[in-house]
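Posted in: Protein Modeling Q&A

I'm a second-year student putting together a small comparison for a lab meeting, and my supervisor asked me to include a predicted structure for Glycosyltransferase. I've never done this before, so apologies if this is the wrong subforum. The sequence is pasted below exactly as I got it from our records. If anyone can share the C-alpha cell output, I'd also love a short note on what stands out.
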Amino acid sequence: MRLSTYRTNRCVRMGYPCATSSACTNVDVSGACHIGAVKKQTLCLCMIVKNEAQVIERCLGSVRHLIDHWVICDTGSTDGTQDLIRKTLDGIPGELHEEPWVDFGHNRTGNIQRARGKADYLLTLDADHVMRQDAPLPLLTATSYMLRYDTPGTQHRFKHLMRADRTWRYEGVTHEYPCTDESDGPDVQENLDALVIEDHADGGCRSDKFERDARLLRGELERDPANTRTVFYLANTERDLGHVQEAIALYERRAAMGGWPEEVYCSLLEAGLLRAERADDWPGAMDAFSRAWDARPSRLEACYELASRLRVKGRYRTAHALLGGVVDTPEPDDLLFTKSWVYEWGLLFEYSITAYWVGDYTASIEACDTLLAMPDLPEPIRRQAVLNREFAVGRAAPAVPGPSGGRQGREQTTMTKVNEA
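Accepted answer (user: helix_wrangler)
Welcome! Here is the predicted structure, written out as C-alpha cells:
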C-alpha cells in the first residue's frame, strides 16, 4: 500500500492524471496508480557537500518527495554530514561518494557526470537551499530549466534542472555554471516556475566565503583575463569585502568588455550604487546609472536609483520627468538580479512623492490609492503612503482663509521616502 500511495502522489506532483480523478487511466480496482501507461519522468538529486550537518536534513527533506535517485559527493566532512544524508534519504536509491576538494567547478563536474543516466533529469542543489514546490511539475521537454531564487529584495534564475542523457560540466572555479557540448545538440533552455529555491545562505562553507571566492577568482583571472563572468563575480566579491575602489574598477572593466547585456547592466548599476553610497561621487553615480539604463532600457532599477536620489536632492521636476515615462512598465523576464519591488511599487511610490512636489496633487493621490490597494505592500511603505495621501489631499482642497488670511490647517513640510523593508 505504501508503494501505491507513493505512486499516486507522484502522479499529482509530476502533473499526470491521479487516482482521485475519473480521467485517470492508470488506476486498478485497488485504487493504485500504475503510471506505465504514461511516461514517468524521474529526477536524480546531485549535490556536493562539506560539513553541512546543521542544514542538510532541511534541504534533503524539501526534495525527498520529488526525487527517484541521488548522487552526492562529500569533500571532507568531519561533522557527521555523511550519516545524516544516508538517514534522511533512506529508502531512495543513491550513491554517496567522498573525494578531496579541488574547486567548485572541478568537484561539481565529477559529481554530475557520475549521475548521468540515473534518471530523466538531474536536479542540483546546495545544502543551504530549500526547494519549494509552487505547482505540479509539468511534462519536462527542454534540455535544461532555469529555476527562480526567492530571496529578499532581489530575484534571479539559475540552471538547476538538466537532462540526464547529456554530458554536463561546470565552468569556473567558483560561481560556476553548467554547460554541455554542442555535439549533443543545442541546449534548449526554459524557465520553470513550479519549483522555487529558497536560499538560506547558512551552509557550512559560508564562514570564509568571500575571502575564498576572492582567492579563487583572482587566480582564475590571472589565467584567463578575458573571462567576463570571472571579472563580474570578482567585482561582486570585492564589493562584499568592502573594497570599494577595486570593485568599481572591476565593474567598469566588465561593462567595457561587452557581451551578455544583463551582466553589463548589473555591472554599471553596481558601480553607480558604490559611487553614490560609499565613494561620495554623485556625478560618477549619475553617469553610471544612466549608462546602465542605456545598456538595457527594459531594466529600471537604475532609473529608480537615479530618480529617487534626484528627489532626495530636491530635483523634483527632473525626477518626476524620469518616473512619468516608466512608472507603469512591467518587470522584464530577465535572469540576473532583478528587483521585483522596483516594478511592483518602488517606481510608483517615488512618483507619488514627486507628483506632489511638482504640484500635481491629483496624480499624487491616485498613485497613493494604487499603492494602498496592493495587498503585499510592505507595511513601512503603506504607512508612508497613507501620510503622503493626506498631505496631497490637503493641498488639493480649496484654501480656507485662517485668522491671518493664510491657509488654515496642517501642511506638509516634507514627503520623505521610507527605505524599502
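A couple of things worth pointing out for your meeting: The first helix runs from residue 2 to 14. The CA atoms of residues 111 and 324 lie 51 Å apart.
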